[in-house]
């Protein structure tokens, strides 16, 4: 029987002023779950406090953090050296947290006379939301709840579930807005840690925002952005020559063609950060990528979808799809995390959509010179969780800098309409991110999202670069060295 070493957070508020990690070694069977390890530790140390009930993933009571990630102890496989901590909620003792306030915020159905039972269409709409086991894993990692009065993802899920139920008599939207509906950054972390795979941002929060829009309750700043999109096809105003004004048509690589893709630029790289897009273009040409760039492409619609203003989305999608299909494009490249996530998850495209990090890693990049800098990589939410892309940007960055420093994976606060509609929440989250960056002492922050790039730059004292810009810097250093050597 194999042995496992485990570190467990211990804290008794009646005796301790702060928690500590205590190491244990236990014998467990192959394939043991975390809960089995806790039982084995409890035999050694009966004072250890933890919760469990059903042991089959149905009650949610055994939720805790394993190596910083919320999981169900009864489902998650134990590994040697794992660190067990309580959820990020008030600790009552050891791994036991106070779930009462969060559970009390979950609304109940308010029935009335003469109400019809749900029909099949309504039941089908409710199904993706009703499997919640109230483990509060989502609540424990919600960034907005750390800086704002927000009842959190579980409460929002329930508000949407009740809004779909014909037996409920209450208008759920005013209550949801009061509970912080527009503070959510749609970072999707709640979905990714949910043991029941409930897509709370897309199936609950964005849907509640859509109902709010139909009731005329969309935030004024979000309405302004929608008006800009209607008038210009872009979500931000033009302040300088745009990328599409400088580049268009078909752009050939410098050497052998390794891939041909359509390039979806996105509003931020087209209008606010065109220099970054031009850097990416240079990197792509250097690595054998032919680019087809339709000038008629417009905003992907993400700012509208995230804020619930979805009436124009079918027209926007149709126009963007036609722009690439009409040119025979079978692969569309994005360099904006938000655009990529939207095209992959909210569109039904007849073409494949790839992120620039995916493409570069798949075709193999020319090696740059290594720059003498320490770089922290910031994971954009819509790249890491929206597209499942984690390793590729780190792989690229590792070729061009002396050292890649990991940051806590937390939302910077720029997404979900929060930066525009709830700036105090957005700034508070960016401040937390800036604090983490400052602790590392790095020379530069590198990311792969224009909103993150723009937002972190405003709040941090460290320079912020797109991953293709720093890669291009490495190529230019290589060119300068080779020129000297020759």
Q: Percent range for helical residues?
A: 40-55%
* Second rung of CATH, namely the architecture of the largest domain: 3-Layer(aba) Sandwich
Number of β-strand runs:
16
Number of separate domains: 4
Proportion in β-strands? 15-25%
Tell me about the largest β-sheet.
5 strands, mixed
What structural category arises from helix and sheet content? alpha/beta
Mean pLDDT: 96
Strand order within the widest sheet? 2-1-5-3-4
Could you please say which CATH topology of the largest domain applies here? Answer: Rossmann fold
Please work out how many helical segments DSSP would assign. 23
Low-confidence stretches: none
Q: Could you outline the blueprint of secondary structure elements for this entry?
A:
Layout: E1 3-10, E2 20-27, H1 34-44, E3 63-66, E4 69-72, E5 82-85, E6 91-93, E7 96-97, H2 100-104, H3 120-126, H4 137-141, H5 143-147, H6 153-163, H7 172-178, H8 189-193, H9 200-214, H10 220-232, H11 243-246, E8 249-251, E9 259-264, H12 267-272, H13 274-286, E10 289-293, H14 302-306, H15 313-325, E11 331-334, H16 337-345, E12 352-355, H17 356-363, E13 371-377, H18 381-384, H19 391-397, E14 401-406, H20 418-421, H21 423-440, E15 444-447, H22 450-459, E16 464-466, H23 467-485
Parallel strand pairs: 1-5, 9-10, 9-11, 11-12, 13-14, 13-15, 15-16
Antiparallel strand pairs: 1-2, 3-4, 3-5, 6-7, 8-10
Helix pairs in contact: 6-7, 6-9, 7-9, 13-23, 17-19
